[in-house]
Specification:
Elements lengths: L4 E2 L2 H8 L19 E4 L2 E5 L8 E5 L2 E7 L7 E4 L2 E9 L2 E6 L2 E2 L3 E2 L7 E6 L4 E6 L2 E5 L6 E6 L1 E6 L2 E8 L2 E8 L3 E2 L6 E2 L1 E7 L2 E7 L10 E7 L11 E4 L4 E5 L4 E9 L2 E4 L3 E2 L6 H16 E6 L5 E5 L4 E6 L6
Antiparallel strand pairs: 1-18, 2-3, 2-10, 3-4, 4-5, 5-6, 6-7, 7-8, 8-9, 8-10, 11-12, 11-21, 12-13, 13-14, 15-16, 16-17, 17-20, 18-19, 20-21, 22-23, 22-30, 23-24, 24-25, 25-26, 25-27, 28-29, 29-30
């Protein structure tokens, strides 16, 4: 019995990976043919490169024009007057920096991270794919295979598939970009993975778990089942280096977070010291108290962020579709 559960994996692989990718604008050797990337939870669209060489990128409610960099023309684009906003395209992958914050690696539809890790349990196995090679720890006996050269057999907007042959053993790795949940620990991952060895298939999950949190501003819709005050705002934004910040109703707060196999927790949260009407201050205190008690977080069936405390209280937040000031 395999305790790692892939959500709708068979349907995704059987149907999705059989679809051939369709190219669309823009077409530049350093840019994805799809013209779109996902940087964690942030969806990024590229517009046509203009005659003056400027590249347009659109995200949330914004459109930014970037200028090709003289030091890496054709791949690196920088916002005029803002060197901390830049986009470095590398085909199916890219790096986006917004005002100094480096977002999770941007991926075209179906692509995997440049350093992709996957794992399964009962039996345990691991896979690490990087630069066209894989390092594998095989099920049952734990045999380690290093430097296994992979042949990419499927590449489309639904995922990737690879094949290899080692000592007469045929190895296949299939990755589908669909939410995957480890039923043993409850941890979630951004990709479903299948490892097949000589026809025997093992399910697993993979990818950088921070992709499920970062790249979005999460707006709180409910506190412990009691709703929130009309027109009030509580938000969460996850940054690199395990930093978090946002609004707490009246004041802004900042602090740290830790994402591990055991769950999601927040360190001590500091805030500004503005005073507001008493109902807002009470809501703010409740929010910060609940945040300090969070022990786990997960993505719900509709894409919402659900933070759960040790007492079972839930903070529910959804992705904002605009960039709030």
């Amino acid at each position: 019995m395999f305790l790692r559960r892939a959500l709708s994996l068979s349907a995704v692989v059987a149907v999705g990976l059989a679809v051939t990718a369709c190219a669309s604008q823009p077409k530049t050797s350093s840019l994805s043919d799809y013209g779109v990337y996902r940087c964690g939870q942030l969806d990024l669209t590229l517009t046509d490169i203009q005659e003056n060489g400027l590249l347009g990128i659109e995200y949330l409610n914004k459109r930014v024009l970037l200028k090709p960099s003289a030091i890496d023309e054709g791949a690196l684009y920088v916002a005029p007057g803002d060197a901390e906003t830049r986009f470095w395209a590398k085909g199916e992958r890219a790096t986006l920096t917004l005002k100094g914050d480096i977002l999770p690696e941007c991926l075209e539809p179906g692509a995997i991270e440049s350093s992709f890790r996957a794992m399964g349990t009962e039996p345990d196995w691991t896979a690490h794919i990087e630069n066209g090679q894989a390092s594998l720890t095989l099920p049952y006996d734990g045999e380690v295979l290093e430097g296994v050269w992979l042949q990419e057999t499927v590449s489309n907007r639904h995922g990737r598939a690879y094949e290899a042959k080692v000592d007469e053993r045929r190895i296949e790795i299939t990755v589908a970009r669909q939410l995957c949940e480890d039923a043993m620990a409850g941890s979630q991952y951004p990709a479903q993975v299948r490892l097949t060895i000589d026809g025997e298939t093992f399910q697993g999950c993979g990818g950088d778990r921070e992709r499920l949190l970062r790249g979005a501003e999460w707006v709180v819709e409910d506190l412990a089942g009691e709703g929130i005050i009309d027109r009030s705002m509580m938000t969460l934004r996850f940054f690199g280096d395990n930093r978090i910040s946002g609004r707490a109703s009246c004041n802004r707060y900042m602090g740290s977070y830790a994402l591990s196999g055991e769950g999601l927790t927040f360190g001590a949260l500091g805030s500004t010291m503005m005073a507001c009407h008493e109902p807002l201050m009470n809501q703010e205190q409740k929010f910060l108290k609940l945040m300090s008690d969070v022990v786990t977080g997960r993505i719900g069936k509709n894409g919402e962020l659900l933070l759960e405390t040790s007492a079972g209280d839930i903070i529910k937040a959804v992705k904002s579709d605009i960039e709030n000031p």
